[in-house]
Amino acid sequence: MTVRIDATDRKILAELQRDAGQSLDEIARRVGSSKTPVWNRIRKLREAGVIGRQTMVLDAESLGFEACFFVLIRTSEHEAEWQAKFLKALRDRPEVQEAHRLAGDIDYILKVRVKNARAYDVFYQALISEVKVHNVTALLSMEEIKSTTLLPLEAVATD
């Protein structure tokens, strides 16, 4: 379903991205509208699938997850059965925050958040015991420079 997004919708979406926990009154005030029209627009955007689930962003390091690895995976397996097994293995592991299938020399990249290098090794050993992979390269992030879930809404066309 395609939904038309106007300037007011973009303002509402920007506010929700900034802080989805703020009150409807606050969002309405910030976008220069009243509560009911803002609620109706949010409902419309949810129904259209523009707004997905709401979550809270937790600070990984303060919870003891100090190591972030980017894991590059090459495989010689491309059959549907292998892919299903691989995807299940990734979905079953809470350490995997993101997984992407890539074009180019690397088949998959994973973002894996763990407490330390030892915890990464436990993850790695479990993964390779479940699915056959040709090559795995793990890159430890030394410093997170930027991490955001905010989309550049100014690039969304308006009516």
TrEMBL record:
GO cellular component terms given for this protein: cytosol
Q: Which SUPFAM superfamilies match?
A: Dimeric alpha+beta barrel, Winged helix' DNA-binding domain
SMART domains recorded: HTH_ASNC
| Every HTH asnC-type domain range | 5-66
Cross-referenced Gene3D superfamilies, in alphabetical order?
Answer: 3.30.70.920, Winged helix-like DNA-binding domain superfamily/Winged helix DNA-binding domain
Q: Kindly state which keywords UniProt assigns to this record, in alphabetical order.
A: DNA-binding, Transcription, Transcription regulation
Task: Name the Gene Ontology biological process terms.
Answer: regulation of DNA-templated transcription; response to amino acid
Q: What is an example of a GO molecular function annotated in this UniProt entry?
A: sequence-specific DNA binding
Task: Tell me yes or no: is Cell inner membrane among this UniProt entry's keywords.
Answer: no
**Which Pfam family would be a valid example here?**
AsnC_trans_reg
- Listed name of the protein: Leucine-responsive regulatory protein
What species is given as this protein's source?
A: Phaeobacter italicus
Which gene is this protein's source?
A: lrp_1
